[in-house]
Amino acid sequence: MHNLFWEETRKKRNRFISLVLTLGLALSVMATSVSASKFVDAHGNEVELDDTLEAYSSVVLSGADNAARKAETNLGDLWTDALRWFAVSGKINAYFDEDDVTAGNTKVDVDADHIVALWNGGNLRADIAVGKFGAAELAAVLPYPNKVAVIYMSGAQLLEALEAASQALPYGDASADACASFMQAAGLTYSVNADRAYDKGEAYGKHWFKANSVSRVTITDVNGKAFDPNATYAVITHNANFNGMDSSYVFKAAAEANEKSAITKAVVRDVVWMYISEELGNMVGDAYAAPQGRITVTATAAPAESAKPGQSATTTENGTYTVVSGDSLWKIASKVYGSGKLWSKIFSANPQIKNASMIYVGQTLTVPAK
Question: How far is CA 120 from CA 69, 85, 89, 138, 303, in A?
Fold first, then answer.
């Protein structure tokens, strides 16, 4: 009788444990489903987003209203910084596909000072607002399943690629579609003289032409060193540029000519998130408050309101600046105060500036004392 009692007790206990485990599993599944939302990308693919990813931005990152097709933007700086960091840090090494690894292609095969990142403005499509953001916000910025690509090209090819990408500037209603090819950049600074006519060659795609010559674009430096048209540079970008989308005929030709050029398995949105998490500590702050002066677009024939950030100012004795071609608010603050992080002092003193990324040639700015 005694043994029967304990046997029955054991069975009840086991049934209770089984019930608890089953309930726990059900709750776990429910929690997983709650923390994962669905996103249909621009190619019609259903993607499951990890809703547990969280970061915070103290600044508006500009991607809406075709901002990145017009000029350098702070979002373009962040995006290209992430791609270049992915390569320079060596994290990209784990993402080469099996065929590349078998062929001995296991890393970016140039020194860090020859690695740059380029990203076409048409693939930055939404703002990231001040406050908490996550995978859904990145998916709104880039609604495509792009993969990170590495393309090796000469300096001369790099220059022509930027010339072709900038052919439709200055931005306007008529040129908006073609300006999708304009390149945001990390690891180099360059200027576009949009007052010069683009030397159109053979038609390429719906909106673009190949460049017969380079006359509008000048590369100022590459990672702080002199640009060398004969050097080999590694351009970190995405698979669609690798395959020649928009104006990227130079990318396609360079990729075909160098067998080490490769499309990796790394999803671009994941890489951007990796950068924000691991390098920025999940906090996008003052370093991305305004464009950092990597790209200067000169277009004196354009209306004042469509002049772009990446412009500088000349000082006067009464504490004002007249904006001229050259720098962003960040760069102006660097010049005046010795630190770009103080850009907000100028922004706050000029309520007529509605968007810190948009100042224009001829605009007079009040510059408060440090």
Answer: 8, 18, 23, 16, 24
Q: How far apart are CA 232 and CA 114, in angstroms?
A: 7
pTM higher than 0.85, yes or no? no
Strands 295-298 and 188-193, sheet pairing: parallel
Number of Cβ within a 10 Å radius of residue 225: 11
Cβ-proximal residues to 350 (8 Å cutoff; 6+ apart), any chain: 365, 366
Q: Which tens digit of pLDDT belongs to each residue from 110-149? A: 999 999 999 999 999 999 999 999 999 999 999 999 999 9
φ/ψ bin of 205: left (φ > 0), alpha (ψ from -120 to 50), beta (otherwise): left
- Whether 59 contacts 78, CB under 8 Å: no
First-last CA distance in the chain: 91
pLDDT tens-digit series, residues 180-217 = 999 999 999 999 999 999 999 999 988 999 999 999 99
Distance CA 326, CA 309 (A): 9
| Number of residues that make up the chain | 370
CA 338, CA 361: separation in Å to the nearest integer? 22
The single residue listed with the structure tokens 């909106």 is 207
Distance (Å) of CA 227 to CA 94, 158, 212 = 30, 10, 21
Q: Torsion angle of alpha carbons 123, 127, 131, 134, nearest 10°?
A: -30
Which of these, 272, 361, 66, 76, lies nearest to 190 by C-alpha position? 76
Picking from 313, 271, 352, the residue whose alpha carbon sits closest to that of residue 78 is: 271
